[in-house]
Structure to design on (183 residues):
C-alpha cells in the first residue's frame, strides 16, 4: 500500500469482508478511491463506487486505468477521463452468479466489473453499446487493450451475464499464466 500511495494511488485498508463460504478470501484488501494518470501530473481518475480489491489487483487495475484507459479516452473523445463506475469488487459468489460451479475471481478480490466512465465534460459513457460509433469505438479499444493487462476480459456480446459491463480479472486459467480469455 505504501508503494501505491507513493505512486499517487488513493486507497485505504479495508477489513476482509465476511463471507459464509470459507473459500471466499481476499488477500490484503484495500478500498480503491482514485488512481493517478502518469501522463498528466496531479490528475487522478476517481472510483466512485470505492471497490474492495486485493491490493495486488488494485495495482494492476489502477495502472490500466491511469496508463491506458485515461490517455486513450482523452485521445478518442477529446476530453479527460474523470471517473469510473464499477461494482463492489469483492463479492463472494460463483462465476456468472450460478448456483453451483467454480468461484468467481470476485470471491478473491481479483476481479472488477466496469459499467461506465464519466468524462471531465460531464458525459456519461456506458459500457453497454449505445449505437454511437465514436463512443462504442472508444470502449472497444479499451476492451481489446485490456487483454494485455488481464487474464479474463468479458463484456457485451460475450454472454448474457456481461451484456452491460466489462469484467476484468487476473485469475489464472489452466497451466499457463499466459492464457487469456478475451471476449
Amino acid at each position: 500500500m505504501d508503494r501505491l500511495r507513493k505512486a499517487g494511488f488513493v486507497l485505504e485498508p479495508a477489513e476482509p469482508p465476511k463471507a459464509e463460504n470459507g473459500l471466499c478470501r481476499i488477500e490484503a484488501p484495500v478500498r480503491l478511491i482514485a488512481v493517478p494518470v502518469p501522463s498528466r501530473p496531479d490528475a487522478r481518475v476517481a472510483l466512485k463506487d470505492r471497490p474492495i480489491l486485493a491490493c495486488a489487483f488494485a495495482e494492476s487495475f489502477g495502472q490500466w486505468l491511469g496508463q491506458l484507459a485515461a490517455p486513450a479516452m482523452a485521445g478518442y473523445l477529446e476530453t479527460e477521463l474523470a471517473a469510473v463506475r464499477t461494482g463492489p469488487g469483492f463479492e463472494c459468489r460463483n462465476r456468472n452468479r450460478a448456483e453451483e460451479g467454480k468461484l468467481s475471481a470476485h470471491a478473491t478480490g481479483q476481479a472488477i466489473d466496469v459499467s461506465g466512465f464519466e468524462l471531465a465534460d460531464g458525459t456519461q459513457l456506458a459500457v453497454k453499446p449505445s449505437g454511437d460509433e465514436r463512443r462504442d469505438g472508444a470502449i472497444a479499444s479499451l476492451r481489446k487493450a485490456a487483454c494485455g493487462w488481464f487474464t479474463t476480459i468479458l463484456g457485451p456480446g460475450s454472454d448474457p451475464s456481461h451484456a452491460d459491463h466489462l469484467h476484468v480479472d487476473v485469475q489464472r486459467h489452466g497451466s499457463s499464466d499466459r492464457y487469456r480469455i478475451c471476449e
Notes: The chain has a mean pLDDT of 92.
